[in-house]
Design the sequence.
């Protein structure tokens, strides 16, 4: 089962990283994010199929979740390294900061954080680290769904 987890996670992670690289192009970023989520699901599906083929009769969901975590973590780390390049290509990220929900902006202001100071390369890396913190979790959830599909198709 560990072989399936590793192979599925690596395949989905590489696919997600490729879509992340595509996403640094400003016009393509809109399409790249859903494709990255799909890559997490592919990781879970592949891991589930491999685990079931190796004899783990009901381990497709668990293998999919673990592979999704690997894929999400690979994607998040890649985004940390791509954030400065994306910031330079986009010119700035102030538009993205203006799209933050009002309660988040209010909370940051109450902490004494000047939101306009986040419009730097360091700010883009900060938000990429925040994304990485959640990407492995959501990658696991989406990978679990992919593994569940593999489990259902195998039965």
Sequence:
């Amino acid at each position: 089962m560990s072989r399936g987890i590793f192979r599925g996670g690596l395949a989905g992670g590489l696919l997600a990283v490729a879509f992340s690289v595509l996403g640094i192009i400003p016009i393509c970023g809109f399409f790249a994010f859903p494709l990255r989520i799909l890559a997490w699901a592919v990781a879970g599906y592949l891991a589930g199929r491999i685990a079931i083929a190796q004899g783990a009769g009901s381990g497709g969901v668990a293998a999919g979740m673990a592979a999704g975590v690997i894929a999400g973590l690979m994607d998040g780390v890649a985004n940390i390294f791509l954030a400065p390049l994306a910031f330079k290509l986009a010119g700035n990220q102030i538009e993205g900061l203006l799209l933050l929900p009002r309660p988040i902006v209010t909370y940051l202001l109450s902490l004494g954080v000047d939101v306009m100071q986040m419009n730097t390369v360091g700010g883009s890396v900060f938000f990429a680290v925040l994304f990485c913190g959640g990407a492995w979790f959501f990658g696991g959830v989406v990978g679990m769904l992919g593994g569940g599909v593999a489990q259902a198709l195998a039965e």
